[in-house]
């Protein structure tokens, strides 16, 4: 939870800087300038008198957390705790950084522990759902990308096929045109031959071809005898 998010938990003004807030069902005091929460006052509000802030900061868990955050988390350059000893009495005490306050709330109250567990569980579920939706979106986008690539290939192939078909059609038209032209020439030639065949037989007429020579000699011999 960021500084801006946690300050939204404040609901009642004590001073310009300090507000009452409600965190995991626990009433607390918050410094709205940094989101730090008064751990001292929170422990004093607990019905369990053994839950005092001085005892918490001496626990093994607190030492482990502070050591871990100071050595591994570089985002937090400020102190993990701030003591406030002046100003209005209600706001005095030791304020903890929000990253530590969750552990203090859980240490003080089983109710806070259950609420924190539910919140964390819900948050993890939402995060898992969000990751799943992102992965699903990426998978769908990848499938769409592949479909687009396939469609592009199909369109390119169709263009090539249409080009081949058009070329084949054009070639066939040219072939048909050539065949028709040849047929017209043949028809013209046939018509000429037909016209030549209808001329009278007197042209180029030869008696020799019409009447054999032996018949002519016989004819002349008969005439001499008579």
List keywords for this structure.
226 residues; alpha+beta; Mlu1-box Binding Protein, DNA-binding Domain; 8 helices; 6 strands; 12% strand; KilA_N; coiled coil; KilA-N domain-containing protein
Query: What top-tier CATH class of the domain at 3-108 fits best?
Result: Alpha Beta
Sheet/helix structural class: alpha+beta
Strand content: 5-15%
**What is the share of helical residues?**
55-70%
Q: Which strand order do you get reading across the main beta sheet?
A: 1-2-3-4-6-5
- What spatial form do the alpha-carbon principal axes imply? rod-shaped
Written as H for each helix and E for each strand, in order along the chain, the element string is HEEEEHHHEEHHHH
InterPro entries: KilA/APSES_HTH, KilA_N
Coiled coil: 140-196
Protein name: KilA-N domain-containing protein
Organism: viral metagenome
Give the helix/strand layout.
Blueprint: H1 3-6, E1 10-13, E2 18-23, E3 26-31, E4 36-38, H2 39-45, H3 53-56, H4 60-72, E5 81-84, E6 93-96, H5 98-108, H6 110-197, H7 207-210, H8 213-225
Antiparallel strand pairs: 1-2, 2-3, 3-4, 4-6, 5-6
Organism: viral metagenome
Keywords: Coiled coil
Protein name: KilA-N domain-containing protein
Structure description:
With 226 residues, the chain is α+β, with helices and mostly antiparallel strands. The chain has helices spanning 3-6, 39-45, 53-56, 60-72, 98-108, 110-197, 207-210, 213-225, and strands at 10-13, 18-23, 26-31, 36-38, 81-84, 93-96. 64% of the residues lie in helices and 12% in strands. Among the domains are: 3-108, Mlu1-box Binding Protein, DNA-binding Domain (Roll), CATH 3.10.260; 111-157. The radius of gyration is 56 Å and the shape is rod-shaped. α5 crosses α6 (110-197). 13% of the residues are buried. It starts with a helix and ends with a helix. It has a 6-stranded antiparallel β-sheet. The mean pLDDT is 79. InterPro entries: KilA/APSES_HTH, KilA_N. Pfam families: KilA-N (PF04383).
């Amino acid at each position: 939870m960021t500084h801006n998010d946690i300050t939204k938990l404040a609901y009642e003004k004590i001073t310009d800087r300090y507000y009452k807030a409600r965190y995991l069902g626990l009433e607390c005091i918050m410094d709205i300038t940094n989101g730090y929460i008064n751990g001292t006052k929170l422990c004093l509000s607990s019905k369990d008198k053994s839950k005092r802030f001085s005892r918490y900061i001496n626990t093994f868990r607190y030492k482990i957390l502070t050591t871990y955050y100071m050595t591994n988390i570089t985002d937090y350059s400020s102190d993990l705790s701030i003591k406030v000893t002046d100003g209005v009495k209600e706001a005095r005490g030791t304020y903890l950084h929000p990253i530590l306050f969750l552990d203090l709330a859980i240490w003080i109250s089983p109710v806070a522990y259950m609420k924190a567990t539910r919140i964390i569980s819900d948050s993890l579920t939402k995060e898992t759902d969000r990751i799943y939706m992102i992965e699903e979106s990426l998978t769908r986008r990848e499938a769409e990308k592949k479909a687009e690539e396939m469609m592009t290939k199909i369109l390119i192939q169709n263009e090539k096929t249409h080009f081949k078909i058009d070329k084949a059609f054009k070639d066939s038209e040219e072939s048909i045109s050539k065949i028709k032209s040849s047929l017209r020439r043949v028809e013209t030639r046939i018509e000429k031959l037909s016209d030549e065949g209808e001329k009278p037989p007197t042209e180029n007429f030869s008696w020799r071809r019409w009447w054999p020579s032996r018949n002519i000699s016989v004819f002349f011999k008969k005439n001499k005898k008579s």
